[in-house]
C-alpha cells in the first residue's frame, strides 16, 4: 500500500509497478490466441503504449481531447488506454452492444477525435455513422484486414489499423519520447481521465466526467479495505471495461498492484477459461453467481438418492461451520471433522470448476440475493459485495475481507461520507464514514447520498443535470434507497423503481423479485403493480430447467408468440410462486403472471448494457399483455 500512497494519476500506476514491484519482463496481460494462452510483459505493454502515444502526438492530439473505444476486453484496450492517459487525453469508452444511433450520439456529444474499433461487426456500425461525426478524424480497427469491410464506403475520417499505428509510432518514438515524458509529468490529479456515458433506464445518455483523482483514490481506499490483494494475484476479466466497475475493480487495481490480468474469451467460454487460467480474484455480477448457485444445486440433487443426501448434508454442515466462525466461536473437533469431510466430498469439486485457487470474488452492479451469498459462504468461497455508481468512480462501500454481513454491500470506504436522507422531508437520518463504523449500528431507510473524493466532476455538457444530482453542499444523490444495518450499507432499491399500489402501499421490487428468484425455474422476474390493486409479474424461465421438465426443443423458443400460454407450464411456475409467496407481505405477493418466451435483451431495448430493466419501456411495450393479465385475474376471482 505504501508504494502507491503518493501516486495521483492513472499513468503513474503502471510505471510504479515496473519501478518498485515487478521486473519489466514479468507477465502483466494474458490472452488466448489460437487455443494457446499468450503472456504479455509489462515491458511490451508500455512499449506499445508509448508507440501509440507517439502516433497520437504526430496526429496533433492535445491534452483533454476525447479518444473513443468500442472494443471487447483485451490487451489492445490496455495499450490504447495507457497511451492516451499518459499524454492527458480522455478515455471515452462505448459499450459494444449500443445501437448505431446511441454510438453516434456519444461520438458527437463527446467530440471524439479517434475511435478504436474491435471487430468487423463493430466497424460496420461505425462506417454507417462516421460521416455524421464532424470531429472524428481517425478510425483505428484492431484488426488488419479491414479494407474488405470498408469496401467502396466513402469515409471522411482516415482509417488505419492498430498494428500500423503501433509500427508508425515506434518509428517516431525517439522524436516524441521526451514529449511523452513531459506530458505524463504534466497530468494532474484534477484532470479528466475518463468520460463514461451512463446508459440509464430513461432519457438521453449522460457523459460522466471522472478525474484521475476519482480513479486513483478509489483504488487506494479499496486496497486499504481489502488488504489481502497481493502483487501476484491473477484476475480473470470478463465484465466490459467500458463499464466503470471492471475498469476500477480489475484493470486499475491490477495496474496499481502489478497483478496479472487474463482476458476471458467470451461469457460462453467463461467456465472453461476459469479452469484454464485458475484465477485468484474475479469481479463478477450477481447473475453469474446465481447461475453457478442454480447449477450446483441442480447437479448436487439430481436423481435424489445417496448423492443428493450427501450434497444436502454437506451444505448444512458448511452453513453450521460458517455461522459458528461468524459469531466468533471456534468449531469443535467433531464439527471440524465433519467440515473436512464435506470439503472433500462436495465443496472441493465445486471449487475445482472455478480453477481451485479463488481467494474471493467481488460482486457488483446489482444486489446479490442474500441466499446466494450465504450459499457461497457455506462452500467456503468468499464473495465480497461492493456498491457504487458510474458517478462515484464507482465504489462507495465494499465488504471487508474478515467481516461479512450477508445482504449488505459492506463498510463505507475511507475518505468519504455516506448519508441516508429521508425521501420526503429531505432531512438526513444518518451520516456515516469509515471511522464511525459500529457493528451494532442501524437506521431507517432513505435515499443514499455521498460526498467526497469518489464523486464525479459532473455530466459532460450538462450543467443543469449535474446541479440536479449534486446539491449545493456537495452531496451526490444516488437515487438508491437504503439504510445502515450492522454498520454496513444495505440497498433496498431505486427510488424510480418504487411501486405505489392503489392503496398507497410502497413496494420496492428488488427484494420481492429476489424472493421469487429462489426458484430454479425462474431466470428473471419483472414486477408490475404501480397504481394497481395488486402485484403481477413478467417471468422469464430458466430455459435449461424448463427444457428438461417438458422435453422442449429449440423450436419452442423460436415461436413467434412472445409469451407462453401452455397450461401445464403456467401451472408448473405457479407451484413455486405459491410456495415462495408466504415469505412476503400480502400486498407484495404476485397474484398473476405471464411467462415471456425469451429473455429481455439489450438489442430489443428492454434492458441497459448493465442489464437493468427499462421499466417505462417494458411497461409500454408489453402494455396489452399486462392489461390482459390483470383482466384475466379479475375474471378468475
TrEMBL record:
Annotated InterPro entries: AMP-binding_CS, AMP-dep_synth/lig_dom, ANL_N_sf
Record's GO cellular component terms: membrane
GO MF term (any one): long-chain fatty acid-CoA ligase activity
Protein name according to UniProt: AMP-binding protein
Domain AMP-dependent synthetase/ligase: 31-460
PROSITE patterns, alphabetized: AMP_BINDING
Coiled coil: 159-190
Keyword Plastid assigned: no
Keywords carried by this UniProt record: ATP-binding, Coiled coil, Nucleotide-binding
Family matches, as PANTHER family: AMP-BINDING DOMAIN-CONTAINING PROTEIN-RELATED, LONG-CHAIN-FATTY-ACID--COA LIGASE
Amino acid at each position: 500500500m505504501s508504494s502507491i500512497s503518493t501516486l495521483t494519476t492513472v499513468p503513474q500506476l503502471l510505471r510504479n509497478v515496473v519501478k518498485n514491484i515487478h521486473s519489466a519482463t514479468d507477465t502483466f496481460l494474458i490472452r488466448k490466441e489460437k487455443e494457446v494462452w499468450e503472456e504479455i510483459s509489462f515491458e511490451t505493454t508500455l512499449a506499445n503504449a508509448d508507440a501509440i502515444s507517439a502516433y497520437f502526438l504526430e496526429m496533433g492530439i492535445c491534452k483533454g481531447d476525447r479518444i473513443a473505444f468500442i472494443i471487447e476486453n483485451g490487451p489492445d484496450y490496455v495499450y490504447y488506454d495507457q497511451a492516451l492517459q499518459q499524454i492527458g487525453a480522455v478515455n471515452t469508452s462505448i459499450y459494444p452492444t449500443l445501437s448505431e444511433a446511441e454510438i453516434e450520439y456519444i461520438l458527437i456529444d463527446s467530440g471524439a477525435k479517434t475511435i478504436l474499433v474491435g471487430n468487423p461487426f463493430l466497424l460496420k456500425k461505425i462506417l454507417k455513422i462516421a460521416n455524421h461525426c464532424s470531429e472524428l478524424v481517425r478510425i483505428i480497427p484492431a484488426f488488419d484486414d479491414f479494407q474488405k469491410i470498408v469496401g467502396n464506403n466513402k469515409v471522411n475520417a482516415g482509417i488505419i489499423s492498430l498494428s500500423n499505428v503501433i509500427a508508425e509510432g515506434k518509428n517516431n518514438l525517439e522524436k516524441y519520447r521526451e514529449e511523452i515524458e513531459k506530458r505524463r509529468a504534466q497530468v494532474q490529479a484534477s484532470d479528466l481521465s475518463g468520460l463514461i456515458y451512463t446508459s440509464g433506464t430513461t432519457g438521453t445518455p449522460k457523459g460522466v466526467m471522472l478525474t484521475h483523482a476519482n480513479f486513483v483514490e478509489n483504488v487506494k481506499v479499496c486496497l486499504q479495505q481489502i488488504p489481502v490483494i497481493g502483487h501476484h494475484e491473477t484476475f480473470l476479466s470478463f465484465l466490459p471495461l467500458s463499464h466503470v466497475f471492471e475498469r476500477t475493480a480489475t484493470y486499475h487495481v491490477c495496474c496499481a498492484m502489478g497483478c496479472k490480468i487474463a482476458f476471458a474469451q467470451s461469457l460462453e467460454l467463461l467456465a472453461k477459461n476459469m479452469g484454464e487460467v485458475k484465477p485468484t480474484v474475479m469481479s463478477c455480477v450477481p447473475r453469474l453467481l446465481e447461475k453457478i448457485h442454480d447449477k450446483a444445486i441442480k447437479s448436487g440433487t439430481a436423481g435424489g438418492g445417496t448423492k443428493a443426501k450427501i450434497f444436502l448434508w454437506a451444505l448444512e454442515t458448511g452453513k453450521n461451520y460458517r455461522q459458528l466462525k461468524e459469531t466468533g466461536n471456534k468449531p469443535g473437533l467433531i464439527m471440524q471433522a465433519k467440515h473436512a469431510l464435506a470439503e472433500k466430498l462436495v465443496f472441493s469439486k465445486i471449487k475445482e470448476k472455478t480453477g481451485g485457487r479463488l481467494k474471493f470474488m467481488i460482486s457488483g452492479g446489482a444486489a446479490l440475493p442474500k441466499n446466494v451469498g450465504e450459499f457461497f459462504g457455506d462452500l467456503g468461497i468468499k464473495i465480497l459485495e461492493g456498491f457504487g455508481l458510474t458517478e462515484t468512480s464507482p465504489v462507495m462501500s465494499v465488504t471487508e475481507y474478515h467481516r461479512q454481513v450477508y445482504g449488505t454491500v459492506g463498510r463505507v470506504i475511507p475518505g468519504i461520507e455516506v448519508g441516508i436522507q429521508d425521501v420526503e422531508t429531505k432531512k438526513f437520518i444518518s451520516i456515516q464514514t469509515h471511522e464511525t463504523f459500529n457493528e451494532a449500528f442501524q437506521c431507517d431507510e432513505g435515499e443514499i447520498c455521498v460526498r467526497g473524493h469518489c464523486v464525479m466532476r459532473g455530466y459532460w455538457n450538462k450543467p443543469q443535470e449535474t446541479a440536479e444530482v449534486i446539491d449545493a453542499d456537495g452531496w451526490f444523490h444516488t437515487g438508491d434507497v437504503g439504510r445502515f444495518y450492522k454498520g454496513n450499507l444495505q440497498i433496498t432499491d431505486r427510488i424510480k423503481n418504487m411501486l405505489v399500489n392503489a392503496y398507497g402501499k410502497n413496494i420496492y421490487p428488488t427484494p420481492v423479485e429476489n424472493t421469487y428468484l429462489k426458484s430454479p425455474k425462474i431466470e428473471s422476474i419483472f414486477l408490475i403493480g404501480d397504481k394497481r390493486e395488486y402485484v403481477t409479474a413478467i417471468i422469464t424461465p430458466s430455459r435449461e430447467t424448463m427444457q428438461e421438465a417438458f422435453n422442449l426443443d429449440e423450436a419452442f423458443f423460436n415461436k413467434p408468440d412472445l409469451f407462453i400460454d401452455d397450461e401445464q407450464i403456467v401451472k408448473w411456475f405457479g407451484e413455486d410462486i405459491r410456495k415462495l409467496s408466504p415469505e412476503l407481505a400480502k400486498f407484495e405477493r404476485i397474484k398473476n403472471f405471464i411467462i415471456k418466451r425469451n429473455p429481455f435483451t439489450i438489442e430489443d431495448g428492454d434492458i441497459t448494457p448493465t442489464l437493468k430493466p427499462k421499466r417505462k419501456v417494458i411497461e409500454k411495450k408489453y402494455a396489452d399483455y399486462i392489461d390482459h393479465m390483470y383482466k384475466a385475474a379479475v375474471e378468475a376471482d
